[in-house]
User: Which sequence fits this backbone?
């Protein structure tokens, strides 16, 4: 039964990816390619679809892992203050006139900011040589508020219209996805994913409680730290690829738990595929329905995802982890 | 006869009463006119375009407060600030003791204007959104501020400029409409849509705004749409001191579009961003792009 479900999910992901690639404002079929179609397909759509899939994967997995290590069904990758740190550092960089990397300046700054705030949250959540779930969560919420407030302050005292526009992408924007950002995103997200997968068994045990984990031969401190690092890597990369896109990190793991159960060894890859496909579809809709305008992909993920989640919620107690 | 007489007498009485009334009314008006009709002396402007117009009408010495965004002309930056356009500080406005607050329907909150009126503050609402409505709005501002002559000159100037373009256009009507994409911000790509002063200027010059189908004023625009309906000219407005550098990325991504490939890219100022006296310069700038 599981094999069928997994096969179905893999098939669904591939279909979502291909739909997002060939459908859109204009349906492009691979066997009737003109010059313009080729250009649209290869230099606009393909990088965009890859970025969407990568981001969705990173968010889905981060959510699944984070809900486990924090033992909290409401944890979402952005709760750790990673995204607000990213936008704050990006804003400071833009205001300070930093342009050393040309077009990649803002994503690189955002990545640095994300890693920095992830590190800060980790340090504050650390006590007696280990990460404490409650401390981690509260430190994340606190820092997140502080960074957002500082960003608001910057925006309200600065009269630079450019700054507002330059920060628009942080609220979720895939329209500028380009090939040159993909390798970095790929490296960080895949290494985060690999780390999470390799510690999946430990994650299962962590959910049961630290004492039990200890008695089963796992070091809760070490495992939680490793898993936290994997979440940090993936979320930071996702934010620098396309800003903040809500819903996926919070609710995709719950939807997948409904189908595949709470075993992290299955839940992590399932959340990866589910998150990736959902963002591909959401982005397809966001660039197609209001042509020639684009609507933020995060809006679409929530509009199609939330009703489905609520439906699932009525049918089964998905919140049990 | 008596009846007639009586009626005459009655009419006479009536006349005298009427005269009395008239005298009283005149007296009241005589007192009231200077109080009502005296042009405002302490003006707070809640929009950058209004500030620019006030400067153009040479009443800048009457401005006592402007928004944080009022940056043109340079001297406007030295006026006391009352906050942003969408979030002005009511206290700051009141503490300047204005006798007129000028607001616009394009950027100020209606509630703020209502609040001001409920506090017995006199307001003027600038309603024009398009170049075509601008001259008449200028005139009514002029008459309110007691500078009708200057306003008339500015309005005429604008109308002449518009009429000239119109007559030139009707002569060249056979020409194929060229498409312009007006970029407001390159990353993410934001362009000028149909309900903007920029769109007015583009159509007035006989061109077509590539993004005219977008429903919002400044939409986030689809790159695919640019490729599928390539513009003949890409105009990049000024939203940052170094737009050339900022736009490198988008031009590279659009290198498949003939305009970007052949360098049909024109950098202009922010003249058309506000419905103010600089729209004429903005139109000229846009015109120069094709020469």
Assistant:
């Amino acid at each position: 039964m599981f094999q069928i479900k997994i096969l179905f999910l893999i098939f669904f992901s591939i279909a979502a990816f291909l739909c997002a690639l060939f459908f859109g404002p204009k349906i492009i079929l691979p066997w009737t390619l003109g010059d313009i179609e080729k250009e649209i397909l290869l230099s606009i759509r393909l990088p965009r679809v890859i970025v969407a899939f990568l981001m969705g994967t990173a968010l889905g997995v981060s959510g699944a892992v984070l809900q486990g290590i924090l033992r909290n069904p409401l944890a979402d990758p952005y709760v750790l203050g990673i995204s607000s740190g990213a936008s704050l550092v990006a804003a400071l960089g833009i205001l300070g006139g930093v342009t050393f990397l040309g077009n990649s300046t803002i994503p690189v700054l955002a990545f640095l900011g994300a890693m920095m705030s992830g590190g800060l949250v980790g340090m504050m959540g650390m006590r007696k040589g280990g990460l404490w779930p409650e401390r981690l969560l509260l430190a994340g919420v606190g820092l997140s508020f502080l960074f957002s407030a500082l960003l608001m302050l910057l925006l309200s005292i600065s009269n630079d219209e450019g700054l507002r526009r330059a920060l628009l992408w942080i609220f979720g924007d895939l329209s500028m996805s380009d090939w040159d950002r993909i390798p970095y995103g790929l490296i960080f997200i895949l290494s985060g994913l690999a780390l999470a997968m390799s510690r999946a068994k430990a994650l299962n045990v962590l959910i049961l409680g630290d004492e039990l984990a200890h008695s089963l031969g796992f070091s809760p401190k070490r495992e939680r730290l490793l898993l936290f690092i994997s979440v940090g890597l993936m979320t930071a990369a996702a934010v620098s690829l396309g800003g903040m896109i809500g819903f996926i990190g919070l609710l995709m793991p719950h939807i997948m738990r409904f189908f595949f159960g709470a075993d992290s060894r299955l839940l992590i890859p399932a959340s990866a595929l589910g998150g990736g496909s959902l963002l591909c579809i959401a982005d397809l809709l966001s660039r197609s329905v209001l042509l020639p305008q684009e609507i933020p992909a995060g809006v679409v993920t929530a509009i199609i995802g939330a009703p489905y989640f609520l439906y699932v919620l009525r049918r089964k107690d998905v919140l049990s982890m | 006869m008596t009846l007639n007489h009586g009626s005459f007498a009655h009419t006479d009485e009536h006349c005298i009463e009427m005269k009395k009334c008239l005298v009283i009314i005149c007296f009241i008006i005589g007192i009231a006119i200077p109080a009502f009709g005296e042009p405002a002396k302490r003006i707070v402007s809640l929009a950058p375009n209004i500030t620019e117009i006030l400067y153009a009408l040479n009443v800048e010495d009457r401005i006592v407060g402007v928004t944080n965004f009022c940056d043109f002309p340079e001297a406007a930056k030295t006026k006391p600030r009352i906050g942003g356009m969408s979030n002005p500080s009511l206290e700051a406005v009141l503490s300047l003791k204005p006798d007129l607050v000028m607001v616009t329907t394009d950027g100020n909150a209606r509630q703020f204007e209502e609040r001001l009126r409920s506090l017995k503050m006199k307001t003027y609402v600038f309603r024009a959104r398009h170049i075509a409505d601008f001259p008449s709005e200028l005139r009514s501002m002029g008459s309110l501020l007691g500078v009708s002559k200057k306003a008339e000159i500015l309005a005429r100037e604008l109308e002449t400029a518009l009429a000239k373009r119109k007559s030139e256009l009707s002569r060249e009507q056979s020409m194929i409409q060229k498409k312009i994409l007006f970029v407001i911000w390159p990353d993410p790509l934001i362009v000028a849509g149909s309900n903007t002063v920029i769109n007015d200027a583009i159509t007035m010059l006989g061109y077509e705004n590539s993004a005219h189908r977008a429903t919002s004023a400044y939409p986030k625009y689809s790159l695919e749409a640019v490729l599928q309906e390539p513009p003949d000219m890409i105009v990049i407005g000024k939203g940052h001191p170094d737009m050339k550098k900022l736009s490198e990325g988008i031009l590279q991504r659009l290198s498949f579009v003939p305009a970007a490939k052949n360098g049909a890219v024109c950098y202009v100022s922010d003249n058309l961003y506000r419905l103010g006296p600089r729209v004429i310069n903005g139109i000229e700038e846009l015109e120069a792009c094709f020469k």
